[in-house]
Specification:
By secondary structure, the protein is mainly beta. It is built from two helices and twelve strands. Strands 1-2-5-4-3-6 form a six-stranded antiparallel beta barrel. Strands 10-9-8-7-12-11 form a six-stranded mixed β-sheet, with no helix packed on it.
Length: 192
C-alpha cells in the first residue's frame, strides 16, 4: 500500500523532496493522474518516455519507468508506468507522493526557456553561510536575466541581496531543519 503521508523517513531527508502527488487512476490502460504541488509545473519535471520518477512507497523512494505521459494542464498529467514484477498496481499508488532527488530539486535548467529553481519554497527558510553563521531569513527573491538573488532580512532588520546558484548550495532545507546553507563571497555582507 502506498504511503500517503509526507516523507519523514530519516534516510530520505535531504536526498529527495516531494514535488507532487498521484491523485487518481484513469482509464483501463493503467493511467494515473499526477498533480504538481505549487509552484511546480510539469515542464520542470523529467517525464519523457524512459525517464524514471521516484514514488514514495512505505517511506522508500521507488523508481518507476515512464512508458507514456499526457500533459493535461501546467500542473497535472496522466502518467503510465512500466509494468512492475512486484505487482504494484496504479490503484495502490493513489495518494503517494512523487519525489525528485535533491540535487535536481534546485538545479537551474541550462535551457534559456526555463528557470528550474522553485524559489518560492525557500521563502521563510533561514539562510546560513558556509561557516554556518546566521545570515537571516529569506523573505523574497528577485530574478534577472543573468542572476537570481535572494532577499534576506538580517537580524538587524536590514534587507540584503544574496546571489543563489546550484553551485553555491551547501545544504538544502528540510522539514526538520528549514535552513539553506550557501557559499557566500567574503565581503558581500557587512559585519554586524
Amino acid at each position: 500500500m502506498a504511503d500517503v503521508s509526507p516523507i519523514r523517513a530519516s534516510h530520505l531527508e535531504g536526498a529527495f523532496r516531494a514535488w507532487g502527488r498521484l491523485v487518481k487512476t484513469i482509464g483501463i490502460n493503467g493511467g494515473i493522474v499526477a498533480q504538481c504541488y505549487d509552484p511546480f509545473v510539469f515542464d520542470q519535471i523529467p517525464h519523457a518516455v524512459g525517464d524514471f520518477l521516484f514514488i514514495s512507497i512505505d517511506g522508500l523512494a521507488v523508481p518507476f519507468a515512464i512508458t507514456a505521459a499526457e500533459e493535461r494542464t501546467d500542473n497535472s498529467a496522466v502518467l503510465y508506468f512500466e509494468v512492475r514484477h512486484d505487482g504494484i498496481t496504479p490503484a495502490e499508488l493513489v495518494g503517494a507522493e512523487l519525489l525528485l532527488p535533491a540535487a535536481e530539486f534546485l538545479a537551474i535548467e541550462d535551457d534559456d526557456e526555463e528557470e528550474g529553481m522553485p524559489l518560492d519554497l525557500l521563502i521563510g527558510c533561514v539562510l546560513h553561510d558556509q561557516a554556518l553563521r546566521l545570515v537571516g531569513e529569506i523573505v523574497d527573491y528577485e530574478q534577472y536575466s543573468y542572476s537570481t538573488l535572494l532577499v534576506v532580512e538580517r537580524p538587524s532588520g536590514e534587507e540584503v541581496l544574496v546571489p543563489i546558484h546550484p553551485d553555491l548550495i551547501e545544504a538544502l532545507p528540510s522539514e526538520e531543519s528549514p535552513v539553506l546553507q550557501l557559499q557566500i563571497a567574503e565581503g558581500l555582507l557587512s559585519e554586524e
